[in-house]
Amino acid sequence: MLIALLIPLGLAAVVYALAMLRAVIRRGAVPTLEGFILGAVTNFFDTLGIGSFAPTMAWFKFRKLVPDRLIPCTMIVGHTLPTMVQALIFLALLGVLVDPILLVGCTVAFLMGGLLGVPLVTRTRVWIVQVVVAFGLILAAILYALANLQLMPGGGTASGLPLTLTVVAIVASFVFGILLNFGIGNYAPTLVLLSLMGMDPRLCFPIMAASAGLTASATGIRYISIGDVNLKLAGGMAIGGIPAVLVAAFIVKSMSVEALRWGVIVVVLYAALVMLRSAIAGRRDEATALVCAPAE
Fold first, then answer.
1. Shortest CA distance to 74 belongs to which of 90, 45, 52, 51?
2. What is the pLDDT of residues 80-130, one digit of tens each?
């Protein structure tokens, strides 16, 4: 069953890379240096377990690199290839130790949720996307703080779950897949959920990476075709992220990231507050436009 995941994941990576390359060439979207550096830094620490979505969102907002509506889409497109490389590494190293029903079930459920979330986020009003992203950032900051304070669930030693908990994990993965389209990464919530259920935290990584990699490739291609993405930035993130993942996985392997998390918390909370302020202003403008609209 592990092979049944590795083969489609590898093929999906090739198909996605070709689709992205074709779009970059067709639109003349030269990858940016800032995107390259951002992709390298965030994916390096993502491989070590700190997560990439919250820091990336915070940087996007701080630097005003893309409109708020395009933040989730650009992140997904830019982080897809590095995440797929992570997925292949974690599956090859640890995938054989994970209960195959849990691994495949969560991955497929996350994929279904991710595909369902594409039309939802593209049709959702900008201020609603801003609110969801802001609360996602706040949640990430809380989880980072809990991790630094040693208050996160330590997890157990299990490589699988009882049937009831397996069903709960699969349903939760479907919901996490939808939220991915709003810029809320699946690493932290999946790690917390499975650790609370008694899973070995190390064995959560193949589930998280495989789910994110396969889903991001499918949703990323749709976002590229729709055009709702900053390809110059996303291209740079993809190019910089892949070698950073390899360095983190095979050379560095582990390091203390506690101090870095505290810095990320400050930046993430700042971005969340700015995002909420934008959402409130957008909602107010929308209400004013409705009131001032002439009656037919």
1. 52
2. 999 999 999 998 888 888 999 999 999 999 999 999 988 888 778 878 888
Tokens (6 digits) for 86:
């992570």
Residue spans of the domains in the chain: they are: 2-287
Distance (Å, rounded) from C-alpha 39 to C-alpha 236? 7
Are 84 and 12 in contact, with CB atoms under 8 Å apart? Answer: yes
Give the chain as a 3 state SS string. CHHHHHHHHHHHHHHHHHHHHHHHHHHCCCCCHHHHHHHHHHHHHHHCCCCCHHHHHHHHHHHCCCCHHHHHHHHHHHHHHHHHHHHHHHHHHHHHHCCHHHHHHHHHHHHHHHHHHHHHHHHCCHHHHHHHHHHHHHHHHHHHHHHHCCCCCCCCCECCCCHHHHHHHHHHHHHHHHHHCCCCCCHHHHHHHHHHCCECHHHHHHHHHHHHHHHHHHHHHHHHHHCCCCHHHHHHHHHHHHHHHHHHHHHHCCCCCHHHHHHHHHHHHHHHHHHHHHHHHHHHHHHHHHHHCCCC
Q: Is 0.85 surpassed by the pTM of this model?
A: no
Q: Two tokens at 33? A: 């240096």
Please compute the mean of the pLDDT values over residues 180-195 and round it to a whole number: 83
Res 295: pLDDT: 46
Range from 176-190, 247-261, 280-294 carrying the lowest mean pLDDT: 280-294
Q: How far apart are CA 195 and CA 204, in angstroms?
A: 8
Which range has the worst mean pLDDT, 56-70, 141-155, 176-190?
141-155
**Residue 227, both tokens:** 């055009």
d(CA 262, CA 110): 29
